[in-house]
Amino acid sequence: MVKLIHTLADHSDDVNCCAFSSSLLATCSLDKTIRLYTLSDFTELPYSPLKFHTYAVHCCCFSPSGHILASCSTDGTTVLWSTHNGQTLAVMEQPGGSPVRVCRFSPDSSCLASGAADGTVVLWNAQSHKLYRCGSVKDGSLVACAFSPNGNLFVTGSSCGDLTVWDDKMRCLHSEKAHDLGITCCDFSSQPVSGFELKYKSTLSGHCAPVLTCAFSHDGQMLVSGSVDKSVIIYDTNSQNVLHTLTQHTRYVTTCAFAPNTLLLATGSMDKTVNIWQFDPETLCQARSMEDQLKQFPEDWSEEDVSLWLCAQGLKDLIGIFKMNNIDGKELLNLTKESLTDDLKIESLGLRSKVLRKIEELRTKVKSLSSEIPDEFICPITRELMKDPVIASDGYSYEKEAMENWISKKKRTSPMTNLVLPSVVLTPNRTLKMAINRWLETHQK
Which of 31, 80, 208, 389 could form a disulfide with 12 if both were Cys (CB 3.0 to 4.6 A apart)? Predict the structure, then answer.
């Protein structure tokens, strides 16, 4: 699904950050330099490395157009560079001269945010290079920053573990303790943010040591993280399952970034290298399809779903036989030793035994999925227990996120009746949510 295609080893000290534009890759390091590479063959540009900072460079980022690169450093400055010739465009000094740990452009390129070790965060006018607004967090260093997709919000993370949300006028909208041992990185997915609500959704596990960096892919379908355990983990954001674990770095993984227009991932490390990874689109789509399929009720599987299941179980060679016999989810669950032998003509005893073992595992899953859950608690779209039920204008209740996704894909019809929805307004079903919570309290004791 993903393979290492190139390793950059030009920095003489720890790599702190890497960033993509549509045509370039930028990397920065404790060695005080920023390096630029072309994505066509990963050769370094003639005017690279960029030198100005007098101490370690902690972060670098491209403007949305890719014409400007920003970098920030322990020397207390944030510098703007031309990506056409590497010339310095502006030097912006953090108030108080504190080391600058992170910098980020707003999606419309109008502002640049810089966060510093003394807890200050500054919004700079990206055209005039003048200070626009300034704020600060209560405790700790600012080490992480990210803008929402539409730019009306940005979030900062501190070494004390506080996650703070600001609007574009630098007003603090919300702040809370997100991690006990400090935040090291934060990122927004590409999904539009309407209004403002910050609430815990889920925890992704997999690393056995502190996580230092994370980033969403530009379509929001993947999340990558790098850790002190020297590994890189790629998650599917919908299923929250691990798609791949990369273990080629020999020291802490400090940075990771997805390219905007190609299936490329860059990871940087204290081993002084940047690895470039390429995704295979066909296997990536297949992996996602399998993950989505495995979330459904097996009785509802189509013949294609069964084929995906066979692939996932290492039984790819049986796909042709199963398709020839029109085996869908219901047929699969009803297969027996006799039908595998007589109807499907599977001659190998070992292969029949493996298929039967996998089917029995599936039957166990079916029992657990449907065990005693009242039908009205199950979302008609996801076929899973609802957590945040809403009533749609067709009178039926659905999981909020699932129905929002349904509508966002321009499906203005009811998932239940297939008729046009009179309205796309979704009303919280608090009565149903209370009933589900009471049922969970009873059945989870």
Answer: 31
Q: In 49-63, which positions are buried (b, 16+ CB within 10 angstroms) versus exposed (e)?
A: bbebbeebbbbbbbb
- Quick: pLDDT tens for 284-309: 555 555 545 444 567 767 787 788 78
Q: Could you tell me the two tokens for 245?
A: 């674990």
Task: Output the pLDDT for position 139.
Answer: 82
Q: What is the structure's pLDDT at 233?
A: 94
Query: Which residues does 33 contact at the CB level (< 8 Å), separation at least 6?
Result: 11, 49, 50, 51, 53, 57
pLDDT at position 377 is 87
How many Å separate Cα 288 from the centre of its chain? 14
Which pLDDT score, from 0 to 100, does residue 305 have? 79
d(CA 145, CA 119): 12
Q: What is the pLDDT of residue 198?
A: 76
> Which pLDDT does position 123 carry in this prediction?
95
Per DSSP, the three-state class of 40 is coil
Residues of the chain with pLDDT under 50: 291, 293-295, 444-445
The candidate with the shortest Cα–Cα distance to 61, out of 187, 228, 205, 249, is: 187
Instruction: Tell me how far apart the alpha carbons of residues 284 and 278 are, in angstroms, rounded to a whole number.
Output: 11
Q: Find the helix packing angle between 281-294 and 303-312, rounded to 10°.
A: 110
Helix, strand, coil percentages in the chain from 3-state DSSP, rounded to 5: 20, 35, 45
Count CA atoms closer than 13 A to 286's CA, side-chain side.
15
What pLDDT, on the 0 to 100 scale, is given for residue 279? 86
Which candidate, 139, 143, 213, places its Cα nearest to that of 176?
A: 139
Contact 16, 292 (CB under 8 A): no
Q: Nearest CA to 118 among 153, 79, 158? A: 158
Tokens of 309: 């299941």
Core vs surface per residue 211-228: b (16+ CB within 10 A) or e: bbbbbbbeeebbbbbbbb
383: left (phi over 0), alpha (psi -120 to 50) or beta: left
Q: Is the peptide bond before 64 cis (omega within 30 degrees of 0)?
A: no
